[in-house]
Amino acid sequence: MRHIFRYADPVVLDGTSTRLSDVRFSGSAAGGQAKAIVDGAGRLIDLTVDALLLRRPPRGIADAILSAVQQAQDEATAARPAPTDAAVAAFDADRIAADVAAVEREADRRLSELSAIVSDLIRHQDRRP
């Protein structure tokens, strides 16, 4: 599993190296009655809905929330650096496939070990009076 994490390289925003999950972007709608915060990957982190917004019809509430979330996600997308030729060249599909295959083999090996242990425990339990 440790091999997979080497592909989760940090990104550079404003000259600072950081992980996408550590960066926050916000959006708002309906005059600030709906506010959303997403991380650098666009995942929703926080959603705040003002009580005044709840006086609107359900469709209006949904539209305001959706608009706030989309605005925050758009900001996150705009802040992500475009992949460079070096980044594209660093992506080695064959190496990733080999690493995934190695992880699968290790998982199969450990599952076989676990199955043998469970079988031994069952046999031991069956022998007890």
C-alpha Rg (nearest Å): 24 Å
Query: How does the helix and strand content classify structurally?
Result: alpha+beta
Number of strands: 5
CATH homologous superfamily title of the largest domain: Nucleoid-associated protein YbaB-like domain
Summarize the biggest pleated sheet.
3 strands, antiparallel
Low-confidence stretches: 1-12
What is the CATH T-level topology of the largest domain? Ybab, Chain: A
Q: Please give the CATH architecture of the largest domain.
A: 2-Layer Sandwich
- The multimeric state of the shown protein is single chain
Number of domains: 2
- Dominant shape: flat
What's the helix count? 3
- What percent of residues adopt helix (DSSP H or I)? 40-55%
